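Case study.
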Amino acid sequence: MLTAFLLLPLAGVLMIAFLPKDREHEAKYLALLVTTIAFAISLFTFVWFDRSVEGYQFVDRLQWITAQDAGFTVQFVLGVDGLSLPMMVLTGLLTVAAVLISFNITLRPKEYFIWLLVLETAVAGVFLSLDLIQFFLFWELELLPMYLLISIWGSGRKEYSAMKFLLYTIGGSALMLVGFLVLGLSAGTFDIAELAAAPPAEAIIPLAAIFWFIMAAFLVKLPVFPVHTWLPDAHTDAPTAVSVMLAGVLLKMGGYGILRIVLPILPQQSLDFRMVLATIAGFSVVYGALITIRQRDLKRLVAYSSVSHMGFVLLGISAMGAVGLSGATLQMFTHGTITGLLFIMVGLVYDRAHTRQIADLSGLMHRMPLIGTVFVVTGLAALGLPGMSGFVAEITVFLGAFGPHPIATSFAVFGVVLGAGYILWTVQRVFTGPMNERWAHLPDATEWWERTAMAGMLASIGIVGIYPRVLTDVVNMGIAPIAAVLGGGA
Amino acid sequence: MDSIGVIIGFYALAGLTVGAALLVFLVRNLLHAVLALVLAFLGMSGLFITLSADFIAMAQILIYAGAIPVLLVFAVMLTPHASRDNANSLFAPGGLLIGLGFAALFVFVAMATVWPVLDVETLHVQSFAGTVRTIGAALLGDYLLAFELASVLLLAAFVGAVALVREDEA
Amino acid sequence: MNGWESLHFIGPALTLLIGAIVVLLVDLITDRRAATAGLTLLVLALTATYATVHVVLGTSGEALYGAVVIDRFGLYFAFLLIAITAAVVLTSFEGLDRISQAGEFYALLLTSCASMIVLAQANELITIFVALETTSIAQFVLAGLGRDDRSAEAGLKYLLTGAISAAVLLYGFAFLFGLAGTTSLAGIAHYVGTGPEGARLALTMAFVLIAAGLGFKMAIVPFHAWVPDVYQGAPTLVTTFLSAASKAAGFAIALRIFYTGLGGGDTFISQDWAMMFAVCAALSMTFGNLAAITQTDVKRLLGYSSIAQAGNIAVGLAAVASGSTLGPSAVLFFLGAYTATNLGAFICVIVVSKRIGSDDIRDYAGLLRRSPGVALVLALCLLSLTGIPPTAGFLAKVYIFNAAIQTGHAWLVGLVIVAVLNTAISAYYYLRWARTMVLDEPADATAFHPTLALGSLLAAMALAVLFFGLNPTWLIEAARRAAETLI
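After joint prediction, the assembly is written out as follows.
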């Protein structure tokens, strides 16, 4: 089942690759078909997932590389637990949305959809891998499609941004590989479950060093201050669908990695450095929010708000307790849907107005009530209005983190206030006020694919907001063993 | 073996060899350099004689002091347009310094090492009469492959030399 | 052991040598280049068959008074070298690239390959030296075979640096012989194993000199100065051969001398030479990558990249000191993966350079539009050189770094950190090149295609890069079994 989820996009890649040149515009339908089936698989998995059992389910296992007595046995293991399942669903959902929102791509459409599907496989591989080397493989595999998607179909300084994204990520993940290899040596296995069951007590280099080597990759990906500078550039210059994928799932790879690998395998070091992480998190939230307020470009604004929101994830993690960790996981999921949708809205506005300068946009609500309304609703979800999924996640993070880190949490709460400020202010400047005559002829979101994407994303935000148990049930199952390793906590 | 004559002979010949080798790159005229090279080779064959390696000493004289300088002189004489200046190099002072440094290092290592030296009795028993026989046996015995491979080396060098100097017919 | 059996043991190399002479003779009779090239391929095929016979029979043991051994290690390299030579010969069908003397070219190629196979089998210092020199002489001439001054300059430069490094190597051998009193590697291993008093300094001197001499072949810093000039000046066919075969042979003999002769892992000096290789590795990677960033000529860029890659392989040499077979098997696996990748990249460069008449990286703009197949293979090879999955280069790097870390020495973890950070640097210039091909607008959009032979060769390389990236077990197993015979 999971293997099918992983390989389906690749099958789509093959089908698209063999499309004749004169039918290349049909690539999008193929891509939509494939991603929808993949999404359906992820939903089935979600439904069938046994919510009463901890640990991995639907495990597919294969010996991939076996080198006898060479200390290098790598498995190909896929499995989901309460932690990876939401991420899997998120990946399925956002890829469908990304494909839908890309229906108007006309430049080299075959390649575009091929890379989008490869990206889905890579990201899904990261979320489902249960072997360190395999995890690393998918982690690196994701670079290539992202690089190409940004540098071919992007805008502005796209090549610079793509290269910056690439170098930051490779730099971070390079150290991660060292950490993985040392862990593998100490424990004699690369299997994540086995490593978590028996965390190594010592290694040939201090475990603290391993901790930071591995964290380097995840913190860059998350991203947090001060290694966040690639994010605004990459977001701003990426095409809409890629921004959606980037904000929606790629950033989650960082948080997911911390939860899946760092906390269970290096629990003592995680506890030792929780203050450092909390400080970084609090700083990121406030810094991200302050920078966001100053942005004049709509897309850059959403991008910086991601830095702030991902700070919440790290804050929840740094609480090192069941509540904080569930909060972090929820925040990852909801940020994925909310910010993903925000990027879709920004993309829709840009497609019509061909500008993202906030100063140029005004009174758009008159011409595009649907886009305006969805934008406002999403914005409210982003600032954590009760009844939306964002509220559930943030409140859980704060509940979990306030005990261990009162100061950082207070800062983060202040970040929420700032968040309310910049979102409302943006909505006011862009959608209300006098209508600029320049925009008198802009159409609203009329295409079915635009509406479908918006509706699907809104639905997920609403469902989780109103009935969070649908998600928390699963998440708690995944968090419980990690929290147990960390010694219960708050 | 440590008779005083051998020791004096060794140092004299060593001095001659090194001095002549220095001359090779210090003199300005290429032909003089070739002559100094001959002298260095002669000194080296003298060193072989102090080691009782008479065959090697003879071969050294025949090939290195005899045949190769002739070739060198031919090469110099047959290229009339080329300068016969043994050009000075900018790097000479630095190179000399590095060279002296390496020499000092090697001397130090050689002195500091406990070499597995054969004792005098063994050497007295050993016959130095038939070194040709020993060398021949080694070349066609233990080192047969290396010996035969050397002919491949010569063949490659020969083919290569012809290929490199041949004018294009095309 | 009788004479025939001895000849049987060096049979593959002997086949190549006889083949070389036949090629020379046939070249006298006919002027048709296809005939000589075809004959060369036939000789290589025969040799490969012979080597396969050895594998099937499981031949092992010493021959010719212990001058050579036949084992899986030597055979692994024999296959690698035959494959490289065959690839170069196949590529030459596309055109001989500034070389006018076809017969000599093929004959020297075969001679060089033969002596490298002997080198990989050699078990004794004098045989090693003569085989190394035979290889070198053939390669000096090959580098100078082009019909212009640049090629002549490359050949001369290669000859001079090669001569000096040979002298250095010989000096190192002399030290070893003086200490151990024997030229056989087994004898030296025995001597080193006894942990002789007062010989540490001289042994150190010996292995530093030997590493310096072999470092020239492996192209590691600080013995790399010839690489960019020779790579750029020599005919690209020859550069291809040098970058793959010469490097592989250098590492083969380094493994043989250091692992077998100086005792991997369990002797009192192995830590010392492991450290030396670690320093060389770090320098090579850092220097090679930093220098490659500013290059605009693709052959120079590949030259510097090959220095950096040699640094990666030297990480494996440093790991050899652990005494387990993981270090050497990682080197062998890396060399296998690197050979396929590097050959692919160079053959693409040959194809492109022939059509667009330039080696400037800017002229690769829009290659994807002009020749999609070539561009895709080249891009794949560049990804593999960077070490991005799902290519062989990714696993090769992971495997060799793993070998270094598995030794359990903290300082090797430090070396791996240097190595992985270098990977990030290398990503910049490899991917910039790939980007130029994929993204930029071509100045001239005429499409071109490689010939069928070259096209299939490129496809084979690309498949190998992908196959070993996805299913490396076979090659890893082969490398491991080869490494096991080394002790």
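Observations recorded in class. Chains A and B do not touch (no CB pair under 8 Å). The radius of gyration of chain A is 21 Å. We will return to this complex in the next lecture.
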